[in-house]
Write a structure and sequence with these properties.
Rossmann fold, about 60% helix, binds 2-acetamido-2-deoxy-beta-D-glucopyranose, flat, 7-stranded parallel β-sheet, 2 domains, alpha/beta, about 400 residues
């Protein structure tokens, strides 16, 4: 009897095993919280239980795959490379990830070259005060090629014949926030100018030194570059361009011995995102620059709600930046650095949903997770009242049909 459907069953089981194995690998590699990992395990257990009555060897196969994975995983990790004597160049250190990363890299023994926008600013002065004399501060706006060029000359002068071990592309901006139609062209260009073209110019400039040392490139990107977060089109598009560039670079630099990693942080409280006055100013400017007809159709209250929601989201962001710093150190010092580091709670789950769930579910998840708008654009409000009425009517009809059956 069993022989009749043995082949299709084994094919089915093979596919299932690959899927479950892949899912487990993804979940476990993503620094998920213990709770989510437990849920995944429970899911796998339920699955195994359901398969049990069908075929014992198949169940054993699934277990074997999981055990094999664990066996390879728990083999002792080769220890990190020494930081001493290695030079690292890191951009955007006035505040945020740059600020804390520089201090940590300095304490580990790296020779740190840190760029800031303002050498006389609080951030730069604090770094100068708290770090060792090995720290070199450079004033660089990465959108200005001459300044990047000057930083390269200064770095070379200090390095002498030595190469550069690490480049940490940290500088980035999120110029504005809102529906794509309400985002100014200057916002799209502003994001591209810093996040993409600035990083591109820095990376190209320092590559000869990095190839010389067979070093590392570590780029701080964002999940907004992989997934369509509502209201983040300008920022997300620039990070998407950045992701594609660094992924291509990773393959091209492999023969040179240069390893390329991308860090994908969840939401953190960094300099700009918690700067209330900055966002109020941006909001004012946006209201003044939008064409009046467009503002009329969306409504000023709609634009203001988006800004308020973003600010409350930013105020709830994680103030402890250490998962990102830890990921940067891993990418710089692990003998075999990963291509991607998911830094922060929940981010692994977010990517899991994005990769394995249907589009409709992952999009809804993003909308629930991020700013939850209550207001419709003004021009749609009347219309939506009408639609709501229609759909209620339809539902009633459906209910009646149900009852008739
Ligand atoms: C830099 O980080 C420290 C914590 O290490 C924090 O206290 C300080 O406010 C930060 N400075 C800036 C300018 O963001
Ligand atoms: C950086 O950009 C400037 C201006 O576009 C260009 O002249 C320079 O060659 C770029 N640097 C590299 C290394 O490509």
């Amino acid at each position: 009897m069993m022989d009749d459907y043995t082949l299709p069953f084994w094919i089915y089981l093979g596919v299932l095993t690959v899927f479950v194995g892949g899912a487990m690998k993804k979940i476990l590699a993503s620094h998920l919280s213990a709770a989510s990992t437990l849920v995944a395990w429970l899911g796998a257990t339920v699955l195994v239980e359901r398969l049990w009555p069908f075929c014992l060897p198949a169940v054993l196969l699934v277990l074997l795959a999981v055990c094999l994975y664990y066996a390879t995983r728990s083999s002792p990790l080769p220890s990190a490379l020494p930081a001493h004597g290695k030079a690292v160049f890191i951009t955007g250190c006035d505040s945020g990830f740059g600020n804390v990363t520089v201090k940590h890299l300095d304490s580990l023994g790296f020779d740190v070259f840190a760029t800031v926008l303002d050498l006389k600013g609080d951030g730069a002065r604090e770094l100068q005060r708290t770090c060792s004399p090995r720290l070199t501060l450079l004033q660089v706006d990465i959108t200005q090629p001459q300044q990047v060029q000057q930083a390269l000359l200064d770095t070379k002068a200090k390095l002498g014949l030595k190469g550069l071990w690490g480049l940490v592309n940290n500088a980035g901006v999120c110029v504005n926030f809102g529906d794509a139609e309400l985002s100014l062209m200057s916002n799209f260009r502003g994001c591209m100018e810093v996040n993409f073209f600035g990083t591109l110019n820095v990376t190209k400039s320092f590559l000869p030194l990095l190839r010389q040392a067979k070093g590392r490139i570590v780029t701080i990107s964002s999940p907004a570059g992989d997934q369509p977060f509502p209201s983040l089109a300008a920022y997300g598009a620039s990070k998407a361009a950045l992701n594609l560039f660094t992924n291509t670079l990773r393959h091209e630099l492999e023969p040179w011995g240069v390893r390329v990693s991308t860090i994908l942080p969840s939401s953190y409280k960094t300099g700009q995102s918690s700067n209330h006055a900055y966002w109020e100013q941006q909001h004012k400017e946006l209201l003044q620059s939008l064409p009046p007809a467009l503002l009329e159709e969306y409504g000023e209250d709609y634009v203001t709600e988006t800004k308020d929601l973003f600010q409350s989201f930013a105020s709830q962001a994680n103030p402890d930046l250490s998962p990102v710093v830890h990921a940067i150190v891993q990418a710089l010092l692990a003998p075999q650095p990963q291509a991607r580091y998911y830094a922060g709670p929940g981010i692994g789950l977010m990517y899991f949903i994005h990769s394995y769930c249907p589009f409709s579910i992952s999009n809804r998840f993003l909308q629930k997770l991020f700013v939850k708008k209550k207001l419709m654009p003004r021009a749609l409000r009347k219309q939506s009242g009408f639609d709501l009425h229609l759909s209620l009517h339809n539902n009633n009809n459906n209910n009646n049909e149900e009852k008739l059956k």
